[in-house]
Design brief:
alpha+beta
């Protein structure tokens, strides 16, 4: 690409863009005098013919090839170039499919790594939850044991209260009898 030539050509713009749009070969047999020259290390010359060929795969334009020749293109040259662009179309499609496959593989590997990380985090969380559940079970056991102790102590207090009430009753009866005996003359 020369200094004054565009880096990106829009579909439909210029010979290359028109070839990409129409998906047909364009052959220039009368090259304008001020057209781009063919350069080599030994010199430069004006081309006699220019051919612009679409590189297609299944009817879709993958690229466009523009070639200049110092001699006119023959029918054999053009047939060979058309067959070549068909092969290039297959190669470009294969490269594109391979790149998509590699991209999908990288995404799959990244998702697998993220999944493994999340599984490890979940496993750690599950272990922590199991540990906390074990602690809660131990605490529940301790609470039940203490509840049994409290219940046992409450029963003991009730028994003592009943004994105390009975003792108090006997004492009251004894004092009542004694008081009655002391009041009554003998």
């Amino acid at each position: 690409i020369g200094d004054n030539q565009a880096r990106r050509i829009e579909v439909g713009s210029g010979l290359i863009g028109q070839c990409a749009l129409e998906k047909q070969r364009i052959l220039l047999t009368k090259v304008p005098p001020r057209y781009t020259r063919v350069h080599s290390s030994l010199g430069s010359a004006r081309p006699k013919n220019i051919v612009v060929l679409p590189v297609l795969f299944e009817g879709e334009t993958k690229a466009v090839v523009e070639l200049a020749s110092l001699e006119p293109f023959t029918a054999t040259h053009l047939t060979f170039l058309e067959q070549l662009t068909q092969s290039i179309g297959v190669v470009l499609n294969t490269i594109e499919a391979t790149m998509r496959t590699e991209n999908l593989l990288q995404q799959s590997q990244q998702l697998t790594m993220e999944l493994q990380t999340r599984q490890a985090e979940l496993q750690q969380t599950n272990e922590e939850l199991a540990s906390k559940a074990k602690q809660l079970a131990e605490q529940n056991g301790e609470v039940e044991r203490k509840n049994k102790e409290v219940e046992h102590a409450r029963r003991a207090l009730e028994e003592q209260a009943a004994e105390l009430a009975l003792t108090s009753k006997y004492k009251s009866e004894f004092l009542a009898n004694m008081s009655h005996e002391l009041r009554t003359p003998l």
